[in-house]
Prior knowledge:
The chain contains 10 helices and no strands. It is mainly α. The protein is elongated and about 70 Å long.
Amino acid sequence: MLPSPADVVEAFFKDFNLLMYHAKTTLVEAFLGLSLGILLGFVVAVIMDRFEIAYKAIYPVLIITQTVPTVAIAPLLVLWLGYGILPKITLIIITSFFPITIGLLDGFKSADPDALNLLKAMGATRMQRFAHIKLPSSLGNFFSGLRISVSYSIIGAVVAEWLGGFSGLGVYMTRVRKSYSFDKMFAVIFFISAISLLLMLGVSLLQKAVMPWDRGQHKTN
């Protein structure tokens, strides 16, 4: 039986302070996991771009990691790492670093070869060619992957919290589900969706600030 929209809105404002308390935990987990996922994705993408043997060895493993359902990985992480914050962050890293890695790798490989050859002929080092050509050319792909990873980080945190914890939106969902409070269940679902949309909007605004030249191209086109 579905609650009315009015009941959902009422449940949201009635439990607003409690939702904010649990949201703080989820956002902290998502931020830590996403930050480490970005760092890991960047390092892996650079290694795969630099060494062809690393690309052939790592890329199939990356694909395999995305075929395993998140809900299947989460219980194992809890068994191995306990009920603290560590398994939650680990799950977020697993779910969020893949779009970052693939986005950056595609960006590195799409760099203009003529520009790279020109800098090489002018005596630029490998690091200089990377910083001036490859890295700027990968920013668009990076932010596209980041938008996906941001939403994955919230979902990953909630899924991990379902299996155990003391606070977090996933813990809140588990409690209201067991009490059959469907109005509160829908309220937290819409709240999680709103958080994901706001974070994705924040990434888009950050992209416009970091890539003003890209914004100018869109205007002229």
